[in-house]
Amino acid sequence: MAFELPPLPYAKDALAPHMSEQTLNFHYGKHHQTYVTNLNGLIEGTENENKSLEDIILSAEPGGLFNNSAQVWNHTFFWSCLSPGGGGEPDGDVKTAIEHAFGSVDEFKQTFTDKAKTLFGSGWTWLAKGDDGLEILQTKDADLPLKHGKTAILTLDVWEHAYYLDFQNARPAYIETWLDKLVNWEFAAENLAKA
Ligand code: MN3
C-alpha cells in the first residue's frame, strides 16, 4: 500500500508572515512529497509494502529506505509542531515537565536554541521523552527519537531548506521565530500525554 502526502493541518498561507506560503509550497509540496514518492518507489513489490511507516523506520538499515521513511515521519510530525496561533509559553503538564527537566521554560528555550544553532549541517532538534524524562536531542540528517527508543514531543527542522526562503542563512532568527510565534504547545501536550 502506497504512502500518501498527508494534508497540512492548516492552509499553506496560515503561518505567514513567520513562515511563508512559498516555504510551504517548497518544503511541504516538493521536499516532503519527494520523500513520499521515493519511499513508495523503494517499498513497491518488497516485504515492506504492507508495513506501517514506524515498522519500516525501525527495521531499516542505514541508507535510502531509512532516510526516506524517517523523513516522511519527521515532516508529518513537524507540520503539527507549527500553529498559526502558536508560540508563547506552555502551560499545564508540559510546563511542569519542562520545569522539572530544565529548571524553567526560559532555560529550556535557551538550551533548545543553543542545540538547534550548533547542529552542524542538516538535521533536527527535538524535545523528546526517554527513560530519564524530557531531554533535548540533536539528530543528523533523517535520524529521529523513535530509532533510539524515545518519544518525540516537539521538533524543529534545521535543514537549510526549512528556512532559507524566509531567513536565508540566519538559522538563529528562524529558531527564535519558531519559539516566539509558531511552536504548537498543544501538540506537545498531546504527545506528552501519550509518552
Ligand atoms: Mn525538511
SSE sequence, one letter per element? HHHHHEEEHHH
Low-confidence stretches: none
- Could you say what the CATH topology of the largest domain is called? minor pseudopilin epsh fold
Our measurement of the CA-to-CA distance between the termini, rounded to an integer number of angstroms, reads: 28 Å
Number of strands: 3
Shape: globular
Largest sheet: 3 strands, antiparallel
CATH class of the largest domain: Alpha Beta
For the largest beta sheet, what order do the strands appear in spatially?
Answer: 2-1-3
The assigned CATH architecture of the largest domain is 3-Layer(bab) Sandwich
- Beta-strand residue percentage: 5-15%
The DSSP helix count reads 8
The average pLDDT is 97
Q: Looking at this structure, what is the CATH superfamily of the largest domain?
A: Iron/manganese superoxide dismutase, C-terminal domain
Structurally, the number of domains stands at 2
